[in-house]
Amino acid sequence: MFKYYTPRIVRSALNIWPPFWGAGIRIVHISDDFRCVKIKLKLRWWNKNANRTQYGGSIFSLTDPVYALMLMGILGKEYFVWDKQADINFLKPGDSDLTASFIISDDCVKNIKHNTSNGDKYFPEFVVNVHNDKGEVVSTVRRVLYIRKKPKYRPIESGNGNNSLEEASAEVQSEAV
């Protein structure tokens, strides 16, 4: 992306980012190529719900920017990458520390590049399981991303070479409705 967008800097920044830090979320690992991320959510007194288990909002938050940030690091400055849609399925109470591992395969990246090569929008879906300290799945989160080449990197023949950042942002907002 740019010289300051390295796994180490992203990890450090997210670990002090107030929504993560306050919820007890910690980035444990980001691979050098951004293709693998591991995150941990500590069970603390301030993120327990009325049933004394992990607050559902914290579980959902631990998955929030991860796939988008990974793909920003993988695809680089030529692409817009935004979260478009997400949902969570709570399967059992999170009564311990929780972890989630995010992986983006080479085939996934090839597929994204293929589907966006002519300037089109692409909406890949990612699913991540959140595990308790026994390795049991406590929730499944599905995320849909918006990925598109930025206007100056789109082929001229696509007719999309002159769209502004504001137009691209408006497109994402209108499709979210």
From TrEMBL:
Residues 157-177 are annotated as: Disordered. It comes from the Bacteria. Residues 166-177 have a biased composition (Low complexity). This is Translation elongation factor P (EF-P).
